[in-house]
Amino acid sequence: MQFNFLVFTIPAFLIFFWLEFLLAKKIRKPHLFKYESSIANISVGIAERLLNLFLTASFYGVFSWIYTKYALFKIPDTWWMWAILILVTDLVWYWYHRLSHEINLFWAVHIVHHQSEEFNLTVAARITVFQSLVRNVFWCVIPFLGFHPDMVVTILIVHGAYSFFTHTRVIGKLGWLEHILITPSLHGIHHASDEKYLDKNYGDVFTFWDKLFGTYMQEEEPPKYGLTHPVKSYSLLWQHFHYFLEIIAACKRTGGFKEKLKIIFGSPALLDQDIRPELERKYLQHKNHTEYRFRFSNYLNYQIAGCIIFLAIITAFYKQLSLPDHLFIASVLLITLVNCGALMEQRRWIYDLECVRLILVFTYLCYRTDYSEYLIVPAILIFLIGELFSMREYYNKHVLHYIKN
Questions:
Q1: pTM of full prediction above 0.90
Q2: What is the number of domains present in the chain?
Q3: Are 167 and 194 in a shared domain?
């Protein structure tokens, strides 16, 4: 049986999240964490890890194909070439990262990483599958130069692990190291929404590239984190797709193919800033009372815990599971993550999503047993039980609960 040892990164990251939280409490900085924001961050990370399972093997094949067919050189596996490789990887990252901030299409897939108004290790999880896809396209440069795919994948793991630890505020400035390595303080500048800090510190490991290309800056006063125009939602769907909608809306406002291309590949700073408020009024649920709570907050915690367990299972045994297993686990996970965002948003359609998830679970059980001819039965039973026992009213009464001002 083939076992994917990358599954151990999941509990490792959770342990570091927990240690950071305990350390923040010890140094009397519990405000570094906000419950809803942290849940949203982790949800985005779970979705990316899940969908990236379907991409990773494919891109290793792409790296191998490029290396075999088009590599400029055949670079040997020596210690000094590994040193060059980490520098090359960070340089490619710098330009991928910088272009992701300067081109609307790339910003649409990268913006999710910057939406959090917190800055802690949970923010490191805010990587979307779209960002992974674009990033892997840039990584193709490395095997093209002549580095073997095994070397590329290994260095990408190291590179990604280092950047995980730069997303924290429990570590302050590190003196002279900040002239060599990207530290939490320097990367915090990159996540800042203050005008003076915008478009700074694109490097992931080293500061060399920022200094060379004029984007290096050290922290002067504590930054304010997040976007210059914050996203007013914890919805997984809205966080992923709102900027694509903004680009589409901007394209509809202009005529001519060339003008639309200028929007798609233009600067985010030039996009009409009135578009997002209009889309928020159209698509987001505006509450009468801004303060709310749902009575079953533990219910949300259990769902996130369940998602993490399912993610660990599909990661560990991905090659042993069949296509229906993959599709079932992926569907349940994604529906659950959307549901978690809907719970925090107090959306009225949560109950319908719960029914869809139940139908999916029971339908899968029928498929995996000898009762596959009864696939339609779960949907009918869940509908009838819900109607007969007024489950929708009961659910809404206990889960959707607002605090009046």
A1: no
A2: 3
A3: yes
Q: Are 357 and 339 in contact (CB under 8 A)?
A: yes
Q: Which two tokens stand for residue 230?
A: 């914050």
Kindly state whether residues 268 and 303 are assigned to the same domain. Answer: no
Q: Do 239 and 342 form a contact (C-beta atoms < 8 A)?
A: no
Residue written as token pair 């890890």: 49
Helices (H), 115-256: 129-139, 141-145, 149-164, 184-190, 208-213, 236-252
Sequence-separated (6 or more) residues with CB below 8 Å from residue 236: 40, 43, 44, 47, 337, 338, 340, 341
- Tens place of pLDDT per residue across the chain (405 aa): 566 777 888 889 999 999 998 888 888 777 788 888 888 999 999 998 888 888 776 788 899 999 999 999 899 889 899 999 999 999 999 999 999 999 999 999 999 999 998 999 999 999 888 888 899 999 999 999 999 999 999 999 899 899 999 999 988 899 999 999 999 999 999 999 999 999 999 999 999 999 999 999 999 888 999 998 888 888 899 999 999 999 999 999 888 889 999 999 999 988 988 899 889 888 886 544 445 555 557 788 889 999 999 899 888 888 888 888 888 888 999 999 998 888 887 777 887 888 888 888 888 887 777 766 666 766 677 766 766 666 777 676 667 654 333
Assess if residue 163 is contained within a domain: yes
Query: Distance between alpha carbon 301 and the CA centroid of its chain, in Å?
Result: 19
DSSP per-residue string spanning 138-170: HHTHHHHHT--HHHHHHHHHHHHHHHHTTS-SS
Q: Which domain holds residue 389?
A: 297-399
Residue 43 lies in a domain: yes
With the C-alpha atoms ordered 149, 150, 153, 156, is the resulting torsion angle positive or negative?
A: negative
Cα dihedral sign, 203-209-211-215 = negative
Query: Is 291 a member of any domain?
Result: no
User: In sequence order, what DSSP letters do the residues of 17-56 get, joined into one string?
Assistant: HHHHHHHHHHTT-GGG--HHHHHHHHHHHHHHHHHHHHHH
Give CA–CA dist 281/293, Å, rounded. 22
Closest CA to 246 of 193, 286, 282, 200: 282
What are residue 280's phi and psi, to 5 degrees? -65, -40
Q: Kindly state whether residue 218 falls inside one of the protein's structural domains.
A: no
Question: Could you tell me how far CA 173 lies from the centroid of its own chain?
Answer: 27
The answer to whether 289 touches 404, Cβ cutoff 8 Å, is yes
**Number of other CB atoms surrounding residue 331 within 10 Å:** 15
